[in-house]
Write a structure and sequence with these properties.
The chain has 9 helices and 16 strands. The strands form 2 sheets. Strands 1, 10, 11, 12, 13, 14, 15 and 16 form an 8-stranded mixed sheet that branches. The protein has an 8-stranded parallel sheet with strand order 8-7-6-5-4-3-2-9. The chain has 2 domains: about 10-230, Alpha-Beta Barrel (TIM Barrel); about 245-355, Elongation Factor Tu (Ef-tu), domain 3. Helix content is about 25%, strand content about 25%. Helix 4 (about 85-90) packs across helix 5 (about 100-115) and helix 6 (about 135-145) packs parallel to helix 7 (about 170-190). The longest helix has 18 residues, at about 170-190. Helix 5 links the parallel strand 5 (about 95-100) and strand 6. With about 350 residues, it is of the alpha/beta class. It has helices at about 10-25, 40-50, 60-65, 85-90, 100-115, 135-145, 170-190, 225-230, 340-350, and strands at about 5-10, 30-35, 55-60, 75, 95-100, 120-125, 150-160, 195, 220, 245-260, 280-290, 300, 310, 315-320, 335-340, 355.
């Protein structure tokens, strides 16, 4: 089976990695490349491994970190650790993110059993209301407690913004990280190595004339910008980066003229929803072999802008081909643009093939 498939332009991807590497270095920032969007696919990892400017690999799934355990890059678990996975995290991650003392204590217990020191970053919630310590007193109490643990070392702090609450990173809120840095260093008696100031949504600050990434923040975790060539605070394309590294293609399995309204009493669809339909008369409808099991139909868009996505079931994507100038036939291929969520889904789905090519 060759379709559906994601086509990956390896040359353009490499160009994006090198561009970002130089951009972060010029800004005084170390580079954590996030590998979760492509599920640490081996061929993708080979390309990332060759980029010398990448200092760390970050992923939210320990199974992905395990898959490239031989990599020379340092490996970071960027989703706060589950208590049930502490043994694998100590074994296969160099650094992990934390916000709960229960998990840190479990990690220290196992690390002490195998006599391995494990490094952690404490996550701080600056208002996005996802993970992290929200109250200063809770954070400082945790630091004092962790200082007493024999096999855990706090090497830094981090923040995540825009992913849940859509809070924009700004110089003002990122400066709070530096305040916490100073307070924590006073307790620990040594300097923190990594102050991680967020993800691709922080990139716009490197080009903003009115504000900057505060001096002292020295790391960004970059995922979406590498694969889609845009920052994620405002969704703007980054000059010098490629926005067309990936393309999804699917094969037409039916092309027929049919009414636009179903016939009969409307109940629930296969996913428990009661759909509504607009009467557009007879239309030329196409079906491609792609469905919700592979990707959300709301997260992709046909490259042929005259095609409209009507809906999807688990393994059928229904299209309106009526207004296209192309005379589509069964067996023809339809190309789609991807966003971050749909790229994530396609790489996760074993039913979507991956096709790597150069210019």
């Amino acid at each position: 089976m060759s379709y559906p498939k994601v086509r990956i332009n390896t040359e353009k991807l490499s160009e994006n990695l090198e561009y970002m590497s130089h951009k972060l270095k010029a800004g005084g920032l170390s580079f954590t490349a996030v590998t979760k969007v492509f599920s640490a696919h081996p061929e993708m990892m080979e390309i990332f491994e060759k980029c010398e400017g990448i200092e760390y690999f970050g992923d939210s799934r320990i199974i992905n970190l395990k898959s490239y355990k031989e990599s020379k890059k340092k490996k970071i678990l960027i989703r706060i650790c589950m208590p049930s996975e502490v043994e694998d995290v100590v074994k296969y991650a160099d650094i992990s993110f934390h916000s709960e003392m229960k998990t840190v204590i479990l990690m220290n217990d196992f690390a002490s059993k195998i006599n391995k020191k494990h490094q952690i970053l404490l996550m701080i919630d600056l208002g996005d209301l996802r993970e992290g310590f929200y109250y200063e007193e809770d954070l400082m109490a945790a630091v004092k407690q962790i200082k007493k643990l024999s096999h855990i070392q706090i090497i830094g702090i981090g923040v995540n913004l825009t992913c849940y609450g859509a809070v924009i990173p700004e110089e003002k809120n990122l400066e709070k990280l530096l305040y916490y840095k100073t307070k924590i260093e006073e307790i620990l008696g040594y300097r923190l190595d990594m102050i991680s100031g967020g993800n691709s949504s922080s990139l716009y600050l490197l080009d903003d004339e009115s504000q900057n990434i505060p001096e002292g923040i020295n790391n960004l975790r970059i995922g979406e910008a590498l694969v889609l060539g845009k920052e994620t605070a405002f969704g703007k394309a980054l000059p010098g980066m490629n926005q067309d590294v990936f393309e999804l293609t699917a094969e037409l399995i039916e092309v027929k003229e049919k009414p636009s309204l179903p016939t009969g009493k409307i109940g629930m669809d296969a996913f428990g929803h009661s759909p509504t339909f607009e009467d557009k008369g007879i239309m030329l409808r196409g079906i491609v072999a792609l469905g919700k099991q592979d990707v959300s139909e709301t997260a992709i868009s046909p490259k042929d802008q005259a095609i409209e996505i009507l809906g999807a079931s688990s393994d059928h994507l229904i299209l309106d081909l009526t207004h296209s100038d192309t005379n589509y036939q069964v067996g023809d291929k339809i190309a789609f643009k991807l966003d971050y969520g749909s790229l994530l889904s396609c790489f996760t789905s074993k039913y979507v093939m991956k096709d790597f090519y150069r210019y």
